[in-house]
Specification:
Layout: E1 3-4, H1 7-28, E2 34-40, E3 43-52, E4 55-63, H2 66-73, H3 82-95, H4 103-115, E5 123-125, H5 127-130, H6 133-137, E6 139-140, E7 150-154, H7 157-162, H8 170-175, E8 181-185, E9 193-198, E10 203-210, E11 220-222, E12 227-232, H9 235-239, E13 243-247, E14 253-257, H10 260-271, H11 280-298, H12 300-311, H13 315-325, H14 330-340, E15 360-362, E16 367-374, E17 377-384, H15 385-392, H16 399-408, H17 410-423, E18 431-434, H18 439-447
Parallel strand pairs: 7-10, 10-12, 17-18
Antiparallel strand pairs: 1-6, 2-3, 3-4, 5-7, 8-9, 9-10, 11-12, 13-14, 15-16, 16-17
Length: 452
């Protein structure tokens, strides 16, 4: 389990998120006006309405939630807490060991936030989003490959149309941070732009949108941001129902990020689709592994729900999930499989093998223990005293008799262990124990011809 941070620091981060959310609402709508709501397709959405010469103008606020209603109620009373927020950010970095983003990255994300990107339901994805999860989950996650020169922003195309509001031109927003930002021509259509680069800072900002139809490289327009976006497969799963977070830059930048359980599952899926040699596949696996270990302890129900949703989406999703899970640490892998009640058989090529290591009788546990190997990791195998007695139909067996029985029937017992390891629900990480209650079903399965 990753190192937990003290509850006082977890509470401090939750307070920071609340303060940043309240300030973001006040900053976005500082003038005189009123909040009004609209009901659309069974949901209620809020807008900020201000008088203009031609009548009234409305700006999108967001979908109705209890948290949003609370902030609207206190909009007029909101006080500037910049100094308090700065103190909280510094404490979280210093005392909890949480990592700040690169200064240039933080400035870009802050500019996008001020422009309304996250208010208009844009979602920060990628490694910069991953940097928010340690504070959100209250743990210290593994730190390798946490820094990046990319900022990735995603939005559903239909949401971009539905919000009926827009940010200032994205290039204009970015040039305020660095005048060297320039649009990059899209390979599929040179007239369109999904990527902006700053040569001086060495930064890249990408806009993405889910590809829910046939695979295509053709950009789609995001009218809320006034830019095009690259369609990506599996992105709809990642950015569904994002959650609020604060990037630990400056006084804290209020953003929307994928739910951490969706991020972890998504990383398993996309890791196997990365081009080999780029290093991104390894980064995906390291991030997924750290998050999965934490989520099994901190948010097991949410992780199980996200896994089952992805697993139910079809054969391609199931294959990629199994392949990705096969790349992470065996203990974490088995812990996840136990949580979601899935067998190791979903992982292609994962087989338990034996090289005839010495078998021993464990007097403390009354088992015969022997060691196997799967995917270059040791697997502790054992058969209980009761199972051996039932197998031999013996009533007066000594421990030496049981050990000799195992040695004489070693190949049979190893086959039973292989079946339970691969095809049965996981009971414990990196272990297989054949119990007397398992014996009949395992022997029946061992007698069946192997499928080709």
């Amino acid at each position: 389990m990753p190192n937990e941070i003290p509850i006082s620091l977890q509470t401090m981060y939750a307070d920071l998120v609340d303060r940043a959310a309240t300030a973001a609402l006040s900053d976005a709508f500082p003038g005189a006006g009123t909040f009004v709501s609209k009901a659309m397709r069974g949901k209620r959405y809020w807008y900020f309405q201000t008088p203009v010469a031609a009548g009234r103008a409305q700006q999108y606020v967001g979908p109705e939630t209890p948290e949003l209603l609370e902030r609207i109620a206190h909009h007029k009373q909101a006080q500037d807490t910049r100094r308090d927020r700065q103190t909280i950010v510094s404490t979280l970095v210093r005392s909890a060991g949480f990592q700040r983003p690169l200064t240039e990255i933080g400035e870009v994300v802050n500019a996008l936030a001020d422009a309304g990107v996250f208010r208009l339901r844009g979602v920060l994805v990628g490694t910069v989003a991953y940097q928010t999860y340690p504070a959100m989950l209250g743990v210290r996650l593994p730190n390798p490959l946490l820094q990046t020169g990319d900022v990735d922003i995603a939005q559903f195309q239909n949401v971009s149309v539905a919000v009926d509001d827009k940010t200032p031109p994205i290039l204009e927003v970015l040039k305020r941070i660095d005048p060297s930002f320039r649009p990059i021509q899209h390979q599929h259509d040179p007239r369109r732009t999904t990527t902006y680069e700053a040569a001086k800072l060495g930064l890249r900002v990408d806009f993405l949108t889910p590809n829910t139809g046939p695979d295509s490289d053709a950009p789609e327009t995001l009218p809320a941001f006034g830019t095009d976006a690259q369609p990506l497969r599996f992105l709809d799963f990642l950015i569904h129902e994002p959650v609020p977070a604060v990037l630990l830059h400056g006084i804290g930048v209020y953003v929307q990020v994928p739910a951490p359980e969706r991020y972890a599952v998504h990383k398993l899926i996309v890791a196997r689709r990365r081009r080999a040699g780029t290093g991104k596949d390894q980064k995906d696996i390291l991030q997924a592994e750290g998050l999965l270990e934490a989520l099994c302890q901190r948010r097991p129900r949410e992780l199980a729900a996200a896994w089952r949703e992805a697993f139910a989406r079809g054969e391609t999703w199931r294959d990629l999930l199994g392949q990705g899970l096969g790349l992470i640490d065996a203990n974490t892998r088995d812990t996840v499989l136990k949580l979601v009640d899935a067998p190791r058989a979903i992982i292609p090529g994962l087989e338990l093998t034996f090289a005839a290591p010495i078998a021993r009788y464990d007097f403390d546990r009354d088992i015969v223990s022997f060691i196997g190997e799967a995917n270059k990791s040791a697997v502790r195998c054992a058969i209980s005293r009761e199972a051996l007695d039932d197998y031999a139909r013996a009533t007066k067996f000594t421990n030496e008799d049981r050990l000799n029985l195992f040695r004489a029937n070693r190949e049979k017992f190893e086959k039973l262990a292989q079946i339970k390891y691969r095809d049965w629900p996981v009971e414990d990480a990196a272990t297989v124990l054949i119990k007397t209650g398992d014996l009949e079903a395992l022997m029946s399965a061992a007698e069946k011809p192997k499928r080709r």
